[in-house]
Write a structure and sequence with these properties.
The protein has helices at about 5-10, 15-25, 40-50, 130-145, 155-165, 250, 255-270, 275-290, 295-305; strands spanning about 85-95, 100-105, 110-115, 170-180, 185-190, 195-200, 200-205, 210-215, 215, 220, 230-235, 245, 320-325. The protein has about 325 residues and is α+β, with helices and mostly antiparallel strands. The strands form 3 sheets. Strands 2, 3, 4, 5, 10 and 11 form a 6-stranded antiparallel beta sheet that branches. Strands 1-13-12-6-7 form a 5-stranded antiparallel beta sheet.
Length: about 325
């Protein structure tokens, strides 16, 4: 993990972080020396202080299912009171097949990720094509929006999809887009790319995975007449201090909500920047994906759906975008 986090980042924060994450979450590797019997374990103490598990019986308050919402006749969202909030974000991408894509635009306060459906790769089709064109088109829509525009993620995805499909771009993609519009966070997601919102160290909102069956997410593709009609959309009030993590399934298949909550909580306590946090989250997801002896969300769901008795991660492209809501 330490090789996946830049030396500059570790020097900015704390070089004990990779081993502390491994200790807290059961990864059987340690870069630093194991203490002799009777000696204090600095890594264990660090993990206990900054990565504590949730207390037994403490409720999980995250809203798992976003609420549907309507748009006005022009396709734009209804007015939301404007507050003095803005989005500061950074991203980190670890490649495997190089089929993920993402974008962000600070002026309009919007970020998004997409993951090309890998099955196309086996048919000689560039599985990254649709995801990349979708995110390129979404970014272009955001960049060309009039100053002061409050971005509707659904409208943005709709327009990006229409442009991508009209261009004849092959393959298919999942997608998740989150915007800060006035005093509200708004979102749209299709498939198993998703997002999570944290407030005061706790998971507040978590997107719902959309899939037809195990490991087969819903996706956007040119030949689908339904377009983005099946997308999940929603909104919630934003607050200064909120942390938004948007990612592809390479993140959410390998890092549980509890693990992500604890990593974000550690990052907030230690004063991480969005880039620090994106790097650390992506690096942990990368190690978790390669473990064959511990559970991940992927292995838990695999047992439930297929009855497969396995404990493993799922190696994949990993895209993580971290956005801080600040005043």
């Amino acid at each position: 993990m330490e090789k996946l986090i830049s030396p500059q980042t570790l020097s900015e924060i704390d070089e004990r972080i990779p081993d502390a994450l491994r200790f807290a979450f059961g990864i059987r590797y340690r870069a630093s020396p194991t203490p002799n019997p009777g000696e204090p374990d600095e890594i264990a103490n660090f993990a206990a202080a900054l990565l504590p598990p949730r207390a037994p019986g403490e409720p999980d308050t995250a809203a798992a299912v976003p609420a549907k919402r309507e748009r006005d006749e022009d396709g734009d969202e209804e007015d939301v009171p404007r507050r003095d909030l803005r989005m500061e974000f950074a991203s980190w991408y670890l490649k495997r097949h190089d089929e993920d894509a993402h974008f962000g635009h600070a002026e309009t306060g919007v970020v998004g990720v997409a993951d090309g459906v890998g099955g196309y790769r086996h048919h000689g089709v560039d599985a990254s094509a649709f995801a990349r064109e979708l995110m390129r088109s979404a970014h272009e829509e955001a960049v060309t929006a009039p100053p002061g525009t409050r971005v509707c993620p659904l409208t943005l995805l709709e327009r990006a999809y229409e442009r991508t499909a009209a261009s004849g771009t092959p393959a298919a993609s999942t997608a998740a887009i989150v915007s800060l519009a006035g005093g509200a966070l708004r979102w749209v997601n299709v498939g198993d790319s998703g997002f999570a919102v944290f407030r005061d160290g706790r998971l507040l909102i978590r997107s719902r995975k959309q899939q037809s069956h195990f490991n087969c997410p819903l996706s956007l593709k040119a030949e689908d007449a339904g377009g983005v009609a099946g997308a999940e959309v929603g909104e919630a009030p934003a607050a200064a201090g909120d942390v938004v993590v948007v990612g592809t399934d390479g993140l959410f298949d390998n890092v549980s909500d509890d693990e992500l909550e604890r990593i974000v909580g550690m990052g907030v306590a230690m004063g991480f920047s969005p880039l620090n946090m994106a790097e650390v989250v992506a690096a942990f997801a990368h190690e978790a994906a390669r473990c064959t002896y511990r559970d991940t969300p992927y292995s838990v769901e695999k047992r439930k759906q297929l009855g497969a008795a396995s404990t493993c991660g799922k190696p994949d492209d990993i895209t993580v975008v971290v956005a801080f809501i600040v005043s």
